[in-house]
Specification:
Shape: elongated
Number of helices: 1
Strand content: 25-35%
CATH topology of the domain at 24-95: Immunoglobulin-like
Distance between the termini: 94 Å
Radius of gyration: 24 Å
Number of strands: 7
Strand order of the largest sheet: 3-2-5-6
Structural class: alpha+beta
CATH architecture of the domain at 24-95: Sandwich
Order of helices and strands: HEEEEEEE
Helix content: 10-25%
CATH class of the domain at 24-95: Mainly Beta
Length: 117
């Protein structure tokens, strides 16, 4: 009985170790494709999850990601980019500026209505 419990315990520890080993720490920098400057506040999200981070003031980020997953990079004023995490631990991402025209504007007024006297 002791040997069975010990074997079960070792198998459980081995499975947890293997599952944890598949996660890797990914570091990188998100830059503007036009001038190469870092983009602060860029959202870096693991696709299909709510897990993510934001870039610092220089555009750098660090995130623990399962290998083979995809990262989505989003920043206001720039196009979205999706990158698959490979065996390397460092990413260099450049985002293109995105400009567009507004199709319509909705104006909403709040306050008291003026009564006619």
């Amino acid at each position: 009985m002791r040997q069975k419990l010990l074997g079960l315990f070792l198998m459980t520890v081995l499975q947890v170790t293997v599952a944890y080993a598949q996660n890797k720490q990914v570091k990188g920098k998100v830059t503007d494709a036009n001038d190469g400057t870092g983009i602060p506040g860029t959202s870096v999200i693991i696709k299909g999850t709510n897990t993510g981070t934001q870039t610092d003031a220089n555009g750098n980020f660090t995130l623990t990601v399962p290998e083979g997953k995809e990262l989505i990079f989003r920043s206001i004023g720039f196009g979205e980019k999706t990158v698959k995490v490979g065996p390397g631990g460092t990413l260099s991402i450049s985002l293109n500026s995105q400009t567009g025209d507004l199709n319509e504007v909705v104006v909403v007024a709040f306050g008291k209505a003026k009564k006619n006297r």
